[in-house]
Amino acid sequence: MTSTYDVLLSRLTSAFDTVSEGADPALRTSDRSDYQANGVMALAKSRGENPRDTARLVLARLDLAGIAEVEVAGPGFLNLTLTTDFLNDQLRALLGDERLGVARRSGRVAVIDYSAPNVAKEMHVGHLRSTVIGDALARMYRFRGDTVIARNHVGDWGTPFGMLIEHLLDLGEDEAIASLSIGDLDSFYRAARQKFESDDAFKERSRARVVLLQGGDRETRRLWQILVDESVAYFAEVYRALDVTLTPADVVGESYYNDMLEGVVRDLDAAGLLVESGGALCVFPEGFTNRDGEPLPLIVQKSDEGFGYAATDLAAVRDRVSNLRADEMLYVVGAPQGQHFEMVFAVARAAGWLPDSVRCEHVAFGNVLGPDRKMFKTRSGETIKLVSLLEEATQRADAALALRSSNMSEDDRHHLATQIARAAVKYADLSTDRQRDYVFDLDRMIAFEGDTGPYLQYAHARLRSIFRRLESPWDPSTTSFALADPAERELALGLVAFPEALAAALASLQPHRLSGYLFDLAQRFTSFYEACPVLAAAEPTRSERLGLCELTSRTLALGLSLLGIEAPSQM
Ligand code: ARG
Questions:
Q1: What are the backbone dihedrals phi and psi of residue 384, each rounded to the nearest 5 degrees, phi first?
Q2: Quick check: is 296 in a domain?
Q3: How far, rounded to the nearest angstrom, does the alpha carbon of residue 314 sit from its chain's CA centroid?
Q4: Which atom of ligand 1 is nearest to the CA of 155?
Q5: pLDDT at 61
Q6: Is 564 left (phi over 0), alpha (psi -120 to 50) or beta?
Q7: Spans of the chain, pLDDT less than 50
Q8: Which of 3, 14, 40, 127 satisfies CB 3.0 to 4.6 Å to 101 for a cystine?
Q9: Residue 13 belongs to domain with CATH number
């Protein structure tokens, strides 16, 4: 089926084209009418006309089938109101469409870099954001028909590995594995760092160990691999607890690019981009300056000949463009790394490794704050463990469920609590503009009222319960929509808008565009449900309202699933 939005947009585009080539209309839902068309102003400008005259010209050429009313408003907007017949056709088509009106595009390849925790270090809330946002985007892209290649760019290389390996040897392999496998990554890391800072002999050994690691010494590599494997296994557990789609197969850590780094330097040099500065090899991409207006370097190779974070990312860009054949590359990484990515992309473009045809974006996000609005840390200043947050959320959900009298078994209740807890944590993250900071407030996140994950899950479960209570069958194929009650019409307009909400979320890489839509839909449903009895209504109204309920329930379930949130049918 073609969505309401696409039907209207293509008609407007044809009408615009008959007036002048190449001017595009824009369309949005609006409160004053059902949809509002924009873009007449630009058209009028190019024709040197009064926009209201141009609007009338467009109007005269617009195919008005299914449009009950058009009005030229303000300085040249076109306000469109749909007929009930048109909405009825759309809703009936939606009933038969598993994709709820979303067109499947022929797949592009999207490489999405997300999560990216560091070996032998706890995942912090920043990694939570990257994981949750990246996974939601991956799900939306896949649903649209794209091929997603997830890249978990795990930090598994660099100087700290000298001390980490030496610490592992001091502990003994078994002991070290035991500590890492229970996810005690932070105390392992801290102990290593403490020795490194206080014990000169240890520091010396650590330095020598880095050299062995970089030289490819087999035993050293084996020890390093233990650290990597134990950490990756631990990350996999966190992903399972969060219900994200990342698997160990998506881990392509920094070390993967080691063999490509020499080539990066060689080719940058051949392109005449490399400059020696203070012993380091740098590129000064155009347009980047510090506060004093001096050009900023991207350090590709340090003075000790070591390669850093930037070199690895340059190699990764090349790999993703030429080997993975990416059409799009997303980097879901915190906002403080914005300049790093801008510079890496600029250098890659200058070197000819990143064609303009490839969309390449840093999907930046803000911080997670504690209740005091400062960085979210434990009282002693430590990273808060992601899994313990989830556990706490699960316990609260479980306690809330236990208070309700229900005949759910304890196992079922616990499973449901897990689903609610994940929804709470993920939704809180995905429902704010990702660029903004947000306060981690478990009480608010887990509430069944308000703009929360559990609220949307509950709205869905309530809908499913209507269908459990059906006394006589309902046949979607003979259902039609008269939309006599204003609340029915409002709900219908919400339902047909799902494809554009998803499109908006994808275009802006902002999952909150989708979550905001779902919340709005749930509210439209609530108003409808208050005004319009469903099971008690006489036919054909009962069938019509069941049709609206069915579509609302499916839209909520699909929308939530694209955010990585489950929609249980009973709560
Ligand atoms: N490991 C890094 C960190 O913890 C994030 C890596 C992001 N991805 C990348 N391609 N640089 O901050």
A1: -85, 130
A2: yes
A3: 24
A4: 1
A5: 93
A6: left
A7: none
A8: 3
A9: 3.30.1360.70
